[in-house]
Amino acid sequence: MGAEAVSSDFTFGMPSGGSSSSTITAGGTATFELLTPAGSFSGMVNFTCAITPAASPTPICSVPGSVNVTGTSATWVTVSVTTTASGSAVSGPFGDLPLRGWFVGWTLALGVSSLLFLGRRRRFVYAPAAVLVLFMVGCGGGSSTSPTPTPASKGTPAGTYTATVTATSGSLSHQAALTVVVQ
Length: 183
What we know:
Elements: E1 21-24, E2 29-36, E3 43-52, E4 60-62, E5 66-69, E6 75-82, H1 99-114, H2 120-138, E7 159-169, E8 172-182
Parallel strand pairs: 1-8
Antiparallel strand pairs: 2-6, 3-5, 3-7, 4-6, 7-8
């Protein structure tokens, strides 16, 4: 009977006393410090991260692509989970009137008002038309209905998300589950 060869392995996870959960508001970032104690392991450790459940817009998990673990020294890995804040409705410089409507209205207003400079006799003929067009443009085209509000941009929905960080080196693989609560 021969002795079995023991391959070196690494461990990966939260350090003693560390929290694997963070509560943030939409638009915030949760940051975790994970520890990769090496023991007798030396080598490159690669990282990936996946967020569940799926959401729109989904939180973004950032991990280093890889770190070099050497000998008995521990290596810290920073994991960031970033969320998207809800935005407010954005309207154009002239409220909710489409740009096309403003362009046509002001072009018409400028065209009619330029007729006022043609001559003294013609000025009195075109003056009421110019005033009417300027009044219509100033009142939003004379529409009596109120515009439909533009919906606000969506932020990361409130809920509990799990960021699963996977550390691999060759055939070795370890995972750490991190919880992010978005309020």
